[in-house]
UniProtKB/TrEMBL annotation:
Residues annotated as the enzyme's active site: 277, 373
UniProt family annotation: Belongs to the IMPDH/GMPR family.
GO cellular component: cytoplasm
Gene3D superfamilies: Aldolase class I
Protein name per the record: CBS domain-containing protein
Entry keyword annotation includes Nucleotide-binding: no
Matching CDD domains: IMPDH
Gene Ontology terms describing biological process: GMP biosynthetic process; GTP biosynthetic process
InterPro entries, sorted: Aldolase_TIM, CBS_dom, IMP_DH, IMP_DH/GMP_Rdtase_CS, IMP_DH_GMPRt
Source species, domain of life: Eukaryota
Every CBS domain range: 123-183
Organism expressing this protein natively: Raphidocelis subcapitata
Sequence intervals crossing the membrane: none
The reaction(s) this protein catalyses: IMP + NAD(+) + H2O = XMP + NADH + H(+)
Amino acid sequence: MPPMNGAIMEHDGFSACELFGKGYSYTYDDVILHPGHIYFGAHEVSLATRVTRNIELQIPIVSSPMDTVTEAEMAVAMSSTARGFTSACVTDTGALGGRLLGMVTTRDVDFVNDRHTPLSEVMTRDLVTAPEGTDRAGAMALLLESKKGKLPLVNADGELVALATRAHFKAMRGLPPQGAPALSPDGRPRVGAAVGTREDDKARVAKLYDEGGVDAVILDSSQGDSTFQLCMLSHIKRAHPELEVICGNVVTGAQARRLIEAGADGLRVGMGSGSICTTQEVCAVGRGQATAVYHVSRVAREYGVPIIADGGIQNSGHITKALALGASVVMCGSMFAGTAEAPGEYFTYQGQRVKKYRGMGSLEAMSKGSDTRYHSDTQALKIAQGVSGVVKDKGSVRRTVPFLCQAVRQGFQDLGGKDMADVRRLLVEGSLRMETRSAAAQAEGGVHDMLAYEKKPW
Ligand SMILES: NC(=O)C1=CN([C@@H]2O[C@H](COP(=O)(O)OP(=O)(O)OC[C@H]3O[C@@H](n4cnc5c(N)ncnc54)[C@H](O)[C@@H]3O)[C@@H](O)[C@H]2O)C=CC1
Ligand SMILES: O=c1[nH]c(=O)c2[nH+]cn([C@@H]3O[C@H](COP(=O)(O)O)[C@@H](O)[C@H]3O)c2[nH]1
Ligand SMILES: [K+]
């Protein structure tokens, strides 16, 4: 049971409401959270959350919709599902949960030239299966024994519940446990896509929804409180009422309220906080990210709308702070740029293995693709709001993300919050205490007085 919180009685530190009401713009490093009381193990902490009103995720981390961060490979890895598909299970409903009828692999279709051949004519019906609940070790043993590549898991009624594959187990060797994938009720990996707010983006939304089967779209603007977003939002809600719409970006309660009242199912928070962003320098607008997250979350919570803290995340501590200050999800660009799953090839820069990372408002990105968004095809002057550069090789997100999540679980444990709702309760009732750090306190909080050291996060 959570204990009575002594911190309030001690009047130590400040509640978020007190700290963020003082007229300063703070970011994650300015603020330090006070520990609460630990009464559970870190392994008991659940990070399950919502990214929109109706979409649940198993972990509170998503990758940025940027052309040097997220394409198909990143999306597949972030949803914690198997890489690539060379086979398909056939069920009587055409979906997970239906009765398993057979399986089609490349061996069944390699020499079938008529692409209209029904799967029922070529599929393998005589399958080795395992009962629902078979664990990883059991599935691997069965794959070894049967010498098959695929092992469908079925329940007592013969309905498909999962598929274990040799390729997946091989790919996962040496990686930490990946956690449960984020799936829709019919078993598809959850996916969202970013769109603009111009007339031709309506056709893109229709394609994404009808053919791509996306669960959510993000209206992707630096300043989301615009007539353009309100028009696009109302169009999507009329044309595709089932599609969840995330609006943004916003940094104030007023912006948030207008978009939520117009029907936004989620909000993306952050203006100029990104590692590649120059918006605050160029346009003079934005907000310190911790302050932005807190104030937007206060308004969004009134409506039960989740918010995404977007930009400026540099470490697991920043993720814990963003979630503790009211975000339901964090969005990372630079953390995931330079990973194996990010688009682009590695190359050598000053002796280091690197990949390209660039802002979507950089001159380079504008002249490739996001060009027409800025009307720069018809206007002579291009004003960049981002930079283009390189980041170091960061390995695989399949390694990074499980460690980040474990670090956040430990952060939640230190705060005394068992899950997102618990941490939210601490914030709202004011028992989550915090204060700002002086420059010297920030230096003390980092590594100091070492002649040489290696900083290995995990
Ligand atoms: N989070 C952040 O701090 C920032 C993010 N970015 C990223 O850069 C990219 C581009 O952002 P934005 O420049 O804000 O893109 P945007 O497409 O929202 O806006 C580009 C320009 O087009 C105008 N516009 C949009 N819809 C219109 C319509 N229907 N009719 C006429 N004009 C219209 C806008 O007012 C703006 O001047 C996005 O990926 C965004 O996430 C850029 C700057 C800051
Ligand atoms: O001012 C900006 N100019 C840009 O060109 C730009 N491109 C992306 N973004 C935003 O930055 C976020 C990623 O930030 P991080 O690298 O810090 O994770 C992303 O998720 C975006 O919100 C931009 N902001
Ligand atoms: K910045």
